[in-house]
Design a protein that fits this description.
The structure is a homotetramer. Chain A is 39% helix and 25% strand. By secondary structure, chain A is α/β, with parallel strands linked by helices. Chain A has two domains: 91 residues, Rossmann fold, CATH 3.40.50.720; 202 residues, Dihydrodipicolinate Reductase, domain 2, CATH 3.30.360.10. The first copy, chain A, has a seven-stranded mixed beta sheet. The longest helix of chain A is centred in the C-terminal third of the chain and has 20 residues.
């Protein structure tokens, strides 16, 4: 039984708490959030203790592992402190908004970086993971091109965007990890962005972007992003290989289809957002974290993958600004 | 070059004329219809001669083959006269409304019955024919169960229904042939009917029926019929075998799909009726007729298949009336 | 918090135990099975007490509700005893193999029959339930025809078949309930059966059947059953209404599709059997049981629905034997 | 009746001849190809005259319109001569391999450029055209992002590639027109290319490219190309708008699907190449050419669209070489 503390009692903290509660080998023992109302509410739900100061988490001898869901600007400090305290660590993405800050994290961790897991949940989505496995099994031969379509149902509030580090570090960061998951290290990136949302344009950020990546082995990928999508949370993937193609459609709640005089085969709307769409992924991710924590084996994805994704985000932002390809 | 006459310048006559015109080895030479307006219009469209009396067709030395699309009550006489005149013959279904009349046709034709083709166009539909071929190729092992869904977009006028011989001889007749195409001879049939259309009920006919068939080899089939269908012409097939299933969806005009906030993957409406849905089938059917006429080989389906389907229609009508299974 | 005992620690007992454990308002407190090994294993899994004699369950003051998953021949006795002891009851299907025995249950229960829930889990399948709801909402107008395709992946052992009451009471019973769920009371039923499995034929039972039903309101339904299916657990539904059609496809584990030189859009195999396919349904069913038990409101489906389905199974078996439609 | 001559009796000449023959208002009267064998064969097929010298076509008083399917290096000369001779003209793409040459064509044509139709057949594909129409009808609101996936089944021979002008002018040229068809004029383009085919790499050309385009109105598009595709001719489109998405799947020959123990819903392979995939499009394109030729109205797409696509191809090649975005 692994005893787990969660730092950050927001939306993502609730997701992780639910996964911990459902896992037979895990036990939630502590919830930490500086906003007492949040900490109290989440901890009460599972009948566990709460605290306001993360230091109490690091000091608690009954805590074996820490899940970090605090605001991004605290990630590095919380990771470093938790590792120093001998805890197993899984942190939400991104590792940091600033490349230098992320670099400091990797440097200070040293070899321990291999054991800090990064919460890139999409690697654990059953559809994406199945495609990855089947490519590994050789089903479509050498992977040659990857198309990642990733659109959020609705733009976040302008104030969120302001502090988010921009679309590449906040939203595309997941897709950078997806591309790296399938294609490995990236050699070159180019990007173009535009706006359909004036509030986001006013923040100096893009709300629609296209990113093109070339891996060190010469394979191509494209990422299609939009901050809003009329039909919900558009999360699809196409892996094109020498011998065939594997693709993942959007998910729907049921398998119902409808035919009328104006259309046929209409399914229900796609699942609307990440809590619902990736619920399985979060659950499986936690299982993987617990397995590697138990076994003491390297985490995958690790904080090094978080750093690599952040470097990509930074390079992409530069490319979108200058119009020139950026080599990594 | 085979020189073809068409008897009956109605809707189906137009379909056949178009197919003849498009076939490189066939030439339309004569159109016959007692309604001069119809005969004139169709013949003018292809710049050929017309006549009002079928006897002229049988007497015409320049006619090699006759396509019979006259009203059902004339089919047997036209078939017999055309064969007697030495013409190759393809007749529209059903062979007759009355079993005795059809029996007379088969008896008088004798061995020549093998060479008279019956216009069961659905055997030539590319999707249904592909399923048949793949079953023959052993793709799904022994065929065990067949589901035929066949619904018309809208009920015909009450006066048409009155003279149609009832739903089984008029509409289900196609599906009986489809079942025989896949399962061979039928040993037993049961049926139940109901009404959602009062005008048809007033004619003493059903407008929705379910038919269950067992082949002489013990294989099962079910036919689902409705005289009306809100989403168009519903023509589907499922062949369930020991090793898998092959099924044919409805067709749509394009491959466009749509996603909105309330649904996803919605295709355009299905093709609305038989002229459009089975255009390819009519064209391929004509090609087969010409090939067998040229080669002098047995027609398939032949007028014997037309007779077998009519026997099934009669037995099914009896079952629907009495509630008891009818053995054949 | 409702305290629940489970009678029968077999496969279905495990399903219910998992659902009880996951439900926030339910607590598993007792497991009963005459085979101590089974009782011990299931109870140990959830750290609860076990017993060998059902009477202990009925006598236990700490038990609020009983889920009956014992062999069918004990269902009626267990239902009656549990209700007499003041417990809330949900029983697995079928209510009994013998109509008279089921009748006795209904009669002895009297008004209490309304509060005994029958485990027809498929009513709670999200896809089927969505179709039901959307029909109620008027989306496809008056429901006119229902097609239920229900095939098991592989035939049970001959000894199971021998004691199962035959395919209609054992397997089709679910589909009878599905038809009643959508069409209400049934006026007339006809059936035809056949065999592709010699071991089942040797037991005097069918392994493939087609059932045709007409509701008291004149609506038609067909049920297509097979004891084996090469592609897994085939569970589909088509509801055809005056204004359109709603249908439920089979479920797959992921949304992955594959294109190769020989095919395109191929999804992964369908979910293989009921524990997996209907896991959500069992969970939702339990929630409904708890809700109605808490509220003291009538159960739906109730043991009366179980009785009605059994009557249908008996009538269908008669029809399959005699070839004649059976009126109810 | 419009009397048509075809210059170029190669593969595409045959496609156009078939479309002309099938069109009720068009008549093929002359075929021209310097290779007598080709000219003879195609002209014989339709029983018409042939010539070896294009000048004979321009001089023939019985020719109303000319379809130019000669090698690209002759397009401009043939267009100019045909127009000068008072013929209606439709030319295959691309207008030329050299921008200056294309510019000369536009300049010399002057206002007549509006009446020369460019053979961008994909605009007439029923699926793509339906999406375009439905966007115009406002079905998905303002179009925001376009994804064009366009992969050929197999790479052409190295010698063809050598004279093709490179992938952008030879293959992507169609996709540039598609993007312009949907998004209008393009302001900026970036591209990245790679090789999986060594023979093409040896020619100094790419065989896989990703192109990103931004329209003058700030809308984004991406083009995904590959010279080879294991599953056939991959031709898809996704139009993402403010209110929804319209997409076009690949086409298959039939609507058959297959379920086995390892997969479900598998369709037959996609149509393999352009002659088959775009047969309808070529037919509809010819109809449009004849309609505008008859009416004397501007052609769409015109040679100006051909010029715009070529400019895009040139700019994209520059971007792929330098890694920098190119403004137009």
């Amino acid at each position: 039984m692994i005893r787990i503390a969660i730092i950050g009692a927001g939306r993502i903290g609730h997701v992780h708490a639910r996964a911990v509660d459902a896992h037979p080998a895990a036990e939630l023992v502590l919830v930490c959030d500086p906003f007492e109302k949040n900490a109290k509410e989440l901890s009460a739900q599972y009948g566990v203790r709460y605290c306001l100061d993360p230091q109490e988490v690091f000091d608690a001898p009954e805590v074996d592992a820490v899940i970090i869901g605090s605001p991004t600007r605290f990630h590095v400090d919380h990771i470093l402190a938790a590792v120093k305290a001998g805890k197993k660590v899984m942190s939400e993405k991104p590792i940091a908004l600033d490349v230098a800050e992320a670099k400091r994290c990797i440097d200070e961790l040293g070899e321990a970086a291999d054991n800090v897991m990064m919460g890139f949940n999409r690697r654990f989505d059953p559809s994406f993971a199945e495609i990855h496995q089947r490519i590994d099994d050789g089903e479509i031969g050498q992977l040659q091109q990857l198309i990642v379509v990733s659109r959020d149902p609705a733009a976040p509030p302008a104030e969120y965007v302001a502090g988010s580090g921009g679309i590449f570090k906040d939203m595309t960061i997941h897709d950078f990890d997806t591309v790296r998951f399938f294609l490995g290290d990236i050699a070159e990136v180019t990007a173009v962005g535009t706006n359909v949302d004036e509030a986001i344009a006013a923040q100096g950020d893009f709300d629609q972007v296209l990113v093109t990546l070339k891996s060190t082995e010469g394979r191509l990928a494209t990422i299609v992003n939009s901050r809003s999508c009329a039909f919900g949370y558009d999360q699809r993937l196409e892996a094109f290989g020498a011998d065939g193609m594997l693709s993942a459609d959007n998910l729907t709640q049921t398998a119902v289809r409808k035919a009328t005089s104006s259309q046929t085969e209409a399914k229900s709307a796609v699942m609307d957002f990440f809590l619902e769409r990736y619920e399985d992924a979060y659950r499986i991710e936690l299982g993987r974290f617990i397995d590697t924590a138990d076994a003491g084996t390297p985490a995958s994805p690790s904080v090094r993958d978080g750093y690599a994704a952040l470097l990509l985000a930074q390079a992409t932002a530069d490319s979108a600004r200058t119009g020139a390809a950026v080599k990594l």
